[in-house]
Amino acid sequence: MATTQVEPPPPQVEETSSIQRVIIASSVGTLIEWYDFYIFGSLATIISTQFFPTTNPTAALLSTLATFAVGFVVRPFGALFFGRLGDLVGRKYTFLLTLIIMGGSTFAIGLVPGYATIGVAAPVIVIVLRILQGLALGGEYGGAATYVAEHSPVGRRGYFTSFIQTTATLGLFVSLGIILITRQSVGVAAFNDWGWRVPFILSVFLVAISIYIRLRMSESPLFSKIKKEGKTSVNPLAESFGKKENLKMVLLALLGATMGQGVVWYTGQFYALSFLQSVCNVEYVQANTLVGAALLIGTPFFIVFGALSDKIGRKWIMLSGMLIAIIAYRPIYTAMYEDTNIKNKTEVAEKTNVAVKAAMTGTDSVITATTLKTYTDGTSYKEVKTETFPADDAKKAVLAADKKLAKPVIKKEVTLSAGGFWLMVFLVTIQVLFVTMVYGPIAAFLVELFPTRIRYTSMSLPYHIGNGVFGGLVPLISTRLVLATRPAPDQPPSDLLAGLFYPILIAGVCFVIGAIYLPNKSHDNTME
């Protein structure tokens, strides 16, 4: 680690703002950036039908997940660009700029015409905007974490920076809440048609509020001090990654902490939601509601583990979260699947409704058969099948539908009973607790590794590679792993839990490296 003169801790009371105001200003802006970033992932299924050709729904969904992943992959580049800017000109104006870019890109996604209107230009524009989102987020987190840490007194950095750590989960929670409220307000059909744009457009108002708050903030006291003394870095990139000792700490932060933290974070929240909807077939609103409940229950533990890291150190809290996740993931996801697996339930009632609908062209009749099955534990299971016949053959169509449609099931929905719902909330909450263990202390851990003059740049890169690349690719890689277990393209996967191999492997490698090489930073460390 690069050595410089040890600086005194920042004053307890700022002239222009208290530590509480610093936390609020930083957290609100970061929460909004996470909200902006995650509504895209939360609406992936709908977006796939809006911006990509619908001739192959699976390919469209994978294309959307890939577009979602692009935002994560470019985050390290944003970390380099904005990290350098933050170490040259200051923390305040740099992450004010990232907020403006993120908010503008999100708002624009809500206005882009669909594939049916402008063709291939639609996905191209969305990908460009998604890249801008990723670049902006790459500069946001490092600035916010650094800013709060440099205002925090020695011995309480874990506690104060843990409030920043809650913003990612709260951003996901807020995004799910607004999506559900909008969907319930306008109706499912209207939401799928145009209502999905509302959460994107609403973000502009949230961003405006945050910009106003951030403009009233003062610069970090530690950065202001070294700037006044003329000690800021002339070339933060060269100093961060060109010097052997500092590069070693960057690599150790990535391989021993952030890549494991990243996969645990995205497995416990995003992959959990994806698994509920795509594998367990839990009804859309119920799946989002139960994940939201789990996030609400688990979020305070970011602060609990952040504060605990001030007392016993950061290392073993983070590594313990990884180890427990590695051991528990398969049993947890097995229980999630069994809770919704209709093969394990006793059916008590079945009702089939067949409807004949005239197609928009007026030349065809679309037959929809909805079968609702009810089970002894209160779970209900709905299958929706469709078949299209010439309009003059509607009678034959109805008869065919009554005898079970020949076409594949296009929609399956499980509605959990009250007991099943809360069991699922419990299982997702456990995963959120793993997230709080690995994520709660990591901001303080990272800022303490690097000196003030290059801190923004040095901590941002390993964080965003670990989270943006290793973590952000969890949904895409895990989905591909599950699909790879299909005996044939037209057959279901043989291992529905195959997607867990990726996060378990990455977390396992990170645990071993971290256990051997990570320092156990704690409250007695002063930041250089």
List keywords for this structure.
single chain; about 525 residues; alpha+beta; Growth Hormone, Chain: A; 2 domains; four-stranded antiparallel β-sheet; 22 helices; about 70% helix; globular
Query: What sort of overall outline do the alpha carbons produce when their principal axes are compared?
Result: globular
Order of strands, widest sheet: 1-2-3-4
Protein structure class: alpha+beta
- CATH homologous superfamily placement of the largest domain: MFS general substrate transporter like domains
CATH topology of the largest domain: Growth Hormone, Chain: A
> Which architecture name of the largest domain does CATH use?
Up-down Bundle
| H/I helix tally | 22
Largest sheet: 4 strands, antiparallel
Which range does the strand content fall in? 5-15%
Regions with little confidence, pLDDT below 50 for 5+ residues: 1-17
Assembly type = single chain
Look at the structure and give the CATH class of the largest domain: Mainly Alpha
Radius of gyration: 25 Å
Q: Distance between termini?
A: 10 Å
What's the helical proportion of residues? 55-70%
SSE string, helix = H, strand = E? Answer: HHHHHHHHHHHHHHHHEEEHEHHHHH
Number of strands: 4
Average pLDDT number: 81
Q: Number of folding domains?
A: 2
